[in-house]
Structure formats: structure tokens, C-alpha cells
Design goal:
With 110 residues, the protein is an all-alpha fold. It has one domain. The protein is 78% helix and 0% strand. It contains 4 helices and no strands. Helix 1 packs across helix 3 and helix 3 runs antiparallel to helix 4. The longest helix is centred in the N-terminal third of the chain and has 29 residues.
Length: 110
């Protein structure tokens, strides 16, 4: 159950980071309202706060989070941008998730 909670926390963190970057992209590249910067800033603040909730050393958290972020970014590509990921995209996601799991759940010395 702890691993599921950790994955959910990472996924939520990734969504906040993606939204914090995607909304300014909409403003800069697609001519959307400058007001999108306000929720973007809020999502980035939430992203940073969520990162602080992780119980282990920051370096390990950031390394494992990177794997989950990659998974969420590819999912975003499909769900929001409407671009279907390739087989190699999904294989890369799987490799990253396995790596993130090893980093977060592996045994510790000392």
C-alpha cells in the first residue's frame, strides 16, 4: 500500500509540474490569455510543496520522480495533445518506471 501511495504522490506531483509548464506554453505559443500564468504559478507552487512531502533524501526523490514524470509526460502527450505514443515510447516508460521503483523501494545500507 505504501508503494501505491508513493506512486500516487509522484503522479500528482508530475501533473502539477506539467500543468505549471503547459499553461505558459499555451499563452506563449498558442496566443491564449496571459491570465493562464496565474494558475500556472499556483501549480508550480503546489508541485514544489508536493515534492517536500516525500520522506527520503531529496536526491533520491528527484531521481525516482524523474521516472514517474516521464510516464506522466507520455500519458499527457496522448491524452491532451492527441499524439499516440509509439511502442518505443512505452518501452522507455516501462524502463523508467522499473528504475524509479528500484531507486525508491530498493534496500538501503547504513
Amino acid at each position: 500500500m505504501a508503494a501505491f501511495k508513493l506512486f500516487f504522490l509522484f503522479a500528482l506531483t508530475a501533473v502539477c509540474e506539467i500543468l505549471g509548464c503547459y499553461l505558459p506554453y499555451l499563452w506563449l505559443r498558442q496566443g491564449r490569455s496571459v491570465w493562464l500564468l496565474l494558475p500556472a504559478a499556483a501549480f508550480l507552487c503546489l508541485f514544489v510543496w508536493l515534492l517536500s512531502l516525500h520522506p527520503t533524501a531529496a536526491g533520491r526523490v528527484y531521481a525516482a520522480y524523474g521516472g514517474i514524470y516521464i510516464c506522466m509526460a507520455i500519458t499527457w502527450l496522448w491524452a491532451v495533445d492527441g499524439i499516440r505514443p509509439s511502442t518505443s515510447d512505452w518501452i522507455g516508460v516501462l524502463v523508467c518506471l522499473v528504475g524509479a521503483g528500484i531507486i525508491m523501494l530498493g534496500p538501503r545500507s547504513g
